[in-house]
Design brief:
Number of domains: 1
Strand content: 15-25%
Structural class: alpha/beta
Number of strands: 5
Oligomer: single chain
Shape: globular
Length: 157
């Protein structure tokens, strides 16, 4: 299994060097990204928190996601945008998807959308992961942190 603390070391370093305020909006990952970020060096200075919006009503009401299907690129992007506002962060990663074991909204288990918003620039990646629900969550966490790191580097490069 991969180590989510590896990208967090670099995320923490970039956050401290460039004044990023980091946050997350999690659905599928249920707080695992938050747990990893909170372990980063100096997290009290740069980590603003996470909204775990597992239920769609939280996505709609708190994060301002447009009502409708939630396993979509649009949802991941709107989750990141909403968390940026709610958490007063300028770099946010979001996750939404089908964790399994069954299909959800017509998507097979392992379909994951990861939104990343860094200082107003937003991207979204679709992942197709394999494994049981626990493995999907762990892999989605790892890949999400790597995508956040990639966008932080792009913003500072």
């Amino acid at each position: 299994m991969s180590d989510p603390t590896a990208p967090v070391r670099d995320i923490a370093q970039l956050a401290r060097q460039h004044g990023f305020r980091i946050g997350a909006a999690e659905s599928l990952t249920g707080g695992t990204i938050s747990s990893a970020l909170a372990q980063g060096e100096g997290a009290a200075d740069w980590y603003h928190g996470t909204v775990v919006s597992y239920h769609e009503k939280v996505k709609f009401d708190l994060l301002g996601v447009t009502p409708g299907p939630v396993i979509t690129e649009r949802c991941a992007i709107e989750m990141a945008q909403g968390a940026t506002r709610v958490l007063e962060a300028d770099a946010v990663v979001s996750t939404t998807g089908a964790g399994g074991p069954d299909e959800e909204e017509g998507h097979p288990p392992g379909t994951v959308y990861v939104g990343v918003m860094v200082r107003g620039e937003v991207t979204c990646s679709k992942l197709e992961l394999g494994g049981d629900p626990e493995e999907i969550v762990q892999e989605a966490t790892q890949r999400s942190l790597e995508l956040l790191l990639e966008q932080l580097r792009a913003a500072t490069g």
